[in-house]
Specification:
It is a single chain. This protein is mainly beta. It folds into 4 domains: 54 residues, LysM domain (Membrane-bound Lytic Murein Transglycosylase D, Chain A), CATH 3.10.350; 169 residues, Jelly Rolls, CATH 2.60.120.1440; 78 residues, Immunoglobulin-like (Sandwich); 173 residues, no CATH class. It is built from 3 helices and 43 strands. The strands form 8 sheets. It has an 18-stranded mixed beta sheet that branches. Strands 29, 31, 32, 34, 35 and 36 form a 6-stranded mixed beta sheet that branches. The protein has a 5-stranded mixed beta sheet with strand order 21-27-26-23-24, with no helix packed on it. A hairpin with a 7-residue loop joins strand 31 and strand 32. Helix 2 packs across helix 3. The protein is elongated and about 110 Å long. The termini are far apart.
Length: 546
């Protein structure tokens, strides 16, 4: 005790005063209590059990004995209060996307979870549709909580007093994917995922667990020990190796299954120049019942921006801005067991948006006095138009990369069939570097000396698409900032007609609609609607610009 220190006078040293001694003692006691929790002894308690329960390590019982100055470690007096050292029991929300909430046992939202939040033992977490949460433990193990999932952090014991660590997640519903940092071989399985039907325990591995009416576990690295959640007498467990999975129900564990192979994503595009091309499909796998897919921008697939499932071998990916992404896809077998995951890198570069086409119409035969006409893009400084004799543009016959207006004369070309495409060029406001947008999908035109002069129709434009069965949402405004809308249209075909609107200049932006999803809007294209005058036949290029 500090009180035994006597007041010896030593040169150059301060003298201890009784009040100071008492203050230091109280401060140390307060500090000790701040790092402890209180437990009231009940009949049957012993230090070994208390250390296991509170500290996750039964062999740490001496720490409790030392802190409470217990002389007889084999006997505890019921009703007395013991101080027990606190063991770190938090985990970090290392990435959050969408609606992720901390909830109570009744399902009521306590608060929204944000990046960097510390979650404690006993916390219940819920992710909503297309939402995602990464949890990082002190040993760098990662638990990825997918959408429509509910978990409880049952046991999080980490620190110097718990060298083996204990991490237990109760999965009430949904799916999680776990990467467990390998532990020393002498340590028992220190990471567990419990469902209503089964317990998956690991020392270090990569595995996935899902639960609804049944629970499933699949292992892609390492091994996982499986047991029933409420094991009956002599109920056998299972040791899953990499490449194996199992389903469990209230009746027990099923047979061990071989995981489905990774889907073949080799034919998917790596570069997407148009925002509408956000639908991928791949060859279906025999024996598959569903596909789960995720989109992330990091190589470890820990910062997921989109996760969903499909009953068919396709993925719909709306609302992705320009950038590089990683698509991960895995198939579920008829038992609902997730197979191996395939990954595919792709890049979206859709800005500045490409112009729409005004004239000629697709496949039209025109004379040499015609011009290729296209819509201006709000904010574009110039346009890059190419004409080729082949659809792949291996034989380019005209390359105009500094057009100040979105038009080009065909007078210099001989008769024949051609393909043309056009891109916008803007300047980055921060760097001053020119940004070249994607080309429009090629349109074909036939040049013939007997062909008619190509003319545009006021308020009308079209574009070509490689996608089938999609819709478009077009928003029309008088302002390039779209403060207010003049009209909003849902288009079933890649063309637009504003002739019913009053004469004037309109800004139009477009978004792709695939199934129930709507993608990001494009840059604004400019369309002119002219006053009807049968005596004058002119395009909006001939009209003075306002």
């Amino acid at each position: 005790m500090i009180a035994v220190c006597k007041q010896h006078k030593s040169p150059g040293r301060p003298h201890w005063q009784p009040a100071l001694v008492m203050g230091v003692a109280l401060a140390l006691q307060a500090s000790a209590q701040a790092d402890t929790i209180s437990h009231t002894v009940e009949p049957g308690d012993n230090l070994y059990k208390l250390a296991a329960h509170y500290m996750g390590n039964p062999h740490a019982w001496r720490e409790i004995q030392k802190l409470n100055r217990i002389r007889n470690a084999h006997y505890l007096t019921p009703g007395t209060n013991l101080l027990i050292p606190k063991v770190s029991s938090t985990v970090t929300a290392s990435f959050v996307h969408g609606e992720v909430s901390l909830i109570d046992a009744a399902g009521n939202t306590i608060k929204a979870i944000s990046h960097g939040d510390q979650l404690a033992e006993g916390d219940i977490v819920r992710t909503s549709e297309n939402s995602y949460l990464s949890l990082e433990f002190s040993d760098k193990s990662i638990a990825r909580i997918l959408s429509n999932t509910r978990i409880r952090l049952d046991r999080i014991k980490e620190g110097s007093l718990v060298p083996q660590g204990q991490r237990v997640i109760y999965l009430e519903q949904g799916d999680i994917d776990v990467s467990v940092t390998p532990a020393p071989k002498r340590n028992p399985n220190h990471f567990r995922v419990i469902t209503p039907q089964a317990v998956a325990a690991v020392r270090g591995t990569r595995f996935s667990v899902g639960t609804s009416n049944i629970s499933t576990t699949s292992v892609t690295q390492g091994q996982v020990e499986m047991q029933q959640a409420k094991p009956a007498k002599r109920a056998p467990g299972a040791l899953l190796q990499a490449g194996q999975g199992i389903a469990a129900s209230d009746n027990g564990l099923g047979a061990v299954q071989t995981l489905l192979a990774a889907p073949d994503l080799s034919q998917l595009p790596t570069h997407l120049p148009e925002p509408e091309l956000l639908q991928f499909d791949w060859p279906a796998l025999d024996g598959s019942s569903e596909y789960q897919y995720r989109i992330a921008q990091d190589a470890n697939m820990e910062q997921v921006l989109w996760n969903a499932a499909s009953n068919t071998a396709e993925a719909v990916l709306p609302s992705l801005q320009d950038g590089e992404y990683l698509l991960a896809v895995r198939a579920l077998d008829m038992h609902g067991i997730a197979g191996y995951e395939a990954q595919h890198r792709f890049k979206i570069a859709s800005h500045p948006s490409s112009p729409w086409l005004l004239a000629p119409q697709q496949g039209q035969i025109v004379g040499s006095n015609s011009r290729l006409l296209c819509t201006p893009i709000a904010g574009a400084q110039s346009y890059h138009l190419q004409i080729a004799s082949d659809q792949a543009f291996q034989q380019v016959v005209a390359d105009a990369d500094q057009l100040q207006e979105c038009q080009y004369s065909l007078a210099s070309l001989p008769a024949g069939q051609y393909y043309w495409r056009v891109a916008s060029i803007t300047t980055d406001s921060a760097s001053g570097i020119a940004q070249h947008g994607p080309y429009s999908q090629p349109a074909n035109v036939t040049l013939d000396e007997d062909g008619a002069t190509a003319r545009s129709t006021s308020g009308q434009a079209y574009w070509n698409s490689t996608q089938q069965g999609i819709q478009y949402v077009a928003q029309v405004s008088r302002s390039p900032q779209f403060e207010s809308l003049v009209a909003e249209q849902v288009l079933d075909n890649p063309q637009i007609d504003l002739q019913s609107l009053p004469a004037g200049r309109y800004y139009v932006r477009l978004a792709t609609r695939i199934k129930q999803y709507t993608g990001p809007f494009s840059d604004a294209r400019i369309l002119e609607v002219e006053q009807v005058n049968d005596a004058i036949d002119r395009t909006w290029f001939d009209k003075p610009k306002s």
